Amino acid sequence: MTDSGECVAIIPAKDEAGRIAATVAAVSALPQVATVIVVDDGSADGTGALALAAGAAVVTHPRNRGKAAAMTTGADFAAEHGWPDLPLLYVDADLEQSAAALGVLADPVLAGDADLTIAVLPPQSTAGGGRGFVVRLARNGIRELAGFETTQPLSGMRCLNRAAYTAAQPFARGWGVETAMTVDVVRAGLRVLEVPADLHHRVTGADWRGQLHRAEQYRDVWLALAARRGRALAARVRDRGGRDTPP
Ligand SMILES: O=c1ccn([C@@H]2O[C@H](COP(=O)(O)OP(=O)(O)O)[C@@H](O)[C@H]2O)c(=O)[nH]1
Ligand SMILES: O=C(O)[C@@H](COP(=O)(O)O)O[C@H]1O[C@H](CO)[C@@H](O)[C@H](O)[C@H]1O
């Protein structure tokens, strides 16, 4: 850990033994990063020990709880260990050396020009195996609920200040977290910015594992959007009730 810099990096990690050390090293070297916290989300492959050896602070979920829960655990750990106010930089564990490009996400938040930044990745070296169903579901839902256009609505690399973090609480579960975060932060009147970043991650393939991952993503994004539609409707009903109530 280092103690210079201005944001806290949080890396949710499940069975990332092959990649976590390189990712931690690249993130630790960013001048914008004060400390790196890895949340080992019930890994069975020694991810936590490797992260610790690479210099990260490590919090462990004894059992797998999903990406969103790991993100919350990391933020709680940061708040409890002396960084209650710093912006949070969320980083997927599979970026390896390319995580060195994440500074562009932190800069606009640290400069006060954005409350939430989201990385837009370039074309990856291997093609993905999906047909974009989840991406479209998320993009259309964000447009409908927040009137905001996204190019990569599922992108997990994000930097947000504490106002945006608070607006996004509680996180939607599992793979719905990114879509819901964007909706909640825009609807709170905060500023969201997509930023191109030269990041390279493990692309989800076309095999059964990849399709299962997409099915789980689709379910979680759908549930997150349904919950927010319900909230928006309840708010409209409340507003109408307020207007109809005599002073
Ligand atoms: O139950 C889980 C599943 C995934 N992850 C982490 O969440 C990030 C994103 O996962 P992945 O790269 O598998 O999904 P993608 O972003 O490609 O859809 C990675 O750092 C994973 O190790 C996690 O913390 N808990
Ligand atoms: O390329 C994308 O936009 C999609 C992958 O789409 P497919 O499931 O291959 O249709 O989502 C993945 O890539 C994102 C980068 O934008 C990641 O951050 C997402 O977590 C991942 O699911």
UniProtKB/TrEMBL annotation:
Pfam families: Glycos_transf_2. Keywords: Glycosyltransferase, Magnesium, Transferase. Gene3D superfamilies: Spore Coat Polysaccharide Biosynthesis Protein SpsA, Chain A. Its cofactor is Mn(2+); Mg(2+). The keyword Transcription does not apply. Residues 9-127 form the Glycosyltransferase 2-like domain. It catalyses: an NDP-alpha-D-glucose + (2R)-3-phosphoglycerate = (2R)-2-O-(alpha-D-glucopyranosyl)-3-phospho-glycerate + a ribonucleoside 5'-diphosphate + H(+); (2R)-3-phosphoglycerate + UDP-alpha-D-glucose = (2R)-2-O-(alpha-D-glucopyranosyl)-3-phospho-glycerate + UDP + H(+). Its EC number is 2.4.1.266. One of its GO terms (molecular function) is glycosyltransferase activity. Belongs to the glycosyltransferase 2 family. This is Glucosyl-3-phosphoglycerate synthase. It comes from Barrientosiimonas humi. The lineage of its organism: Bacteria, Bacillati, Actinomycetota, Actinomycetes, Micrococcales.
